[in-house]
Amino acid sequence: MSTSTPISEPLGRTDSVDAFRKCWIASTADNNLTLHGFRRFKTTQLLNLRFLENEIADMDHTIYQAGLSLDLSPSPADRLGLQHGKRDAEVPKINDVITQEFISKLRHLIKEYNEALAAFNNIMTMETFSLLDDEQQASLRDDLSLYEVHKTRLLRVDLGTRSRTDPFQRWLHKYLRAFRYWRLSRKAKSNSEGLGSVAGRQQRWSYQNTILIAEVVGRVTTAALTAVFIIAPLAIMSHQSSKNIQLIVVSVCIIILSFLVSLFLKVSSFEMMAVSAGYAAVLSVFVSNVPASAER
């Protein structure tokens, strides 16, 4: 009687099923944080850029040494400072260095380096939130501690860039994350299972959309301060008949508003001038309407 050997399970099938299970949970979630939150791997991408940079730097050094070995007269301006360049004691022959293989490798590395730089720059302008804000995704990462979860940043691929995000909103992001970390760290101390249960056991997950909260709070605060800086000086000047006092009030308000706008809002120099000029124009209308007899 012949014996048959059992067919062993292909290597990695269990890991693939586990990975698919986690990806399926994240891709079919009901919350936008889980659906559109992806890790940016900032340190790993920077490390990749540094590796590329070092490889190109070695080739760049070889190219410069080969160019200096030609003993050509530098240009009159010598913008690169070639006449002050340091030459190596031993320089290989150009025929042994500048080869077609060398050129092909240089083109490949330069292309990869430029694409990686552009991609990283694009990634770093995207909106981010802490992995701690999404308890469902955090529960799937059992290899991270609570502090590491707090420090891990996810990208919101469904939102625009944060190039125009105000410093005030970023300040709110920071303290909202810190508050959630403080609250969940207290919760984890009293929970032996850690941050959350294993995916599938817990039905209700905790979320904190810091981007939305900071945006709403920032807009409301900006609107309230704008109203205060318009109403307050008008209310003060309405009870002051002296034009000198009114001019002092207008000047102080313009200086304070300009300082706050430049500090808490992300505006260009031209926009800063436009805001100050517009605000000054609004207040100056009230001062110009004061009758001359009121100054006596």
Please, could you describe this protein's structure?
By secondary structure, the protein is mainly alpha-helical. It has 3 domains: 41-73 and 81-124, no CATH class; 127-208; 215-295, no CATH class. It is 61% helix and 3% strand. The protein has 11 helices and 3 strands; from the N terminus they run ααβαααβααβαααα. Strands 1-3-2 form a 3-stranded antiparallel β-sheet. Helix 8 crosses helix 9 and helix 9 (210-237) packs antiparallel against helix 10. The chain starts with 12 loop residues before the first helix and ends in an 8-residue tail after the last helix. The relative contact order is 0.09. Residues 1-9, 197-202 and 292-296 have low confidence and may be disordered.
Short structural description:
Keywords: Membrane, Transmembrane, Transmembrane helix. Helices cover 61% and strands 3% of the residues. It has 296 residues and is mainly alpha-helical.
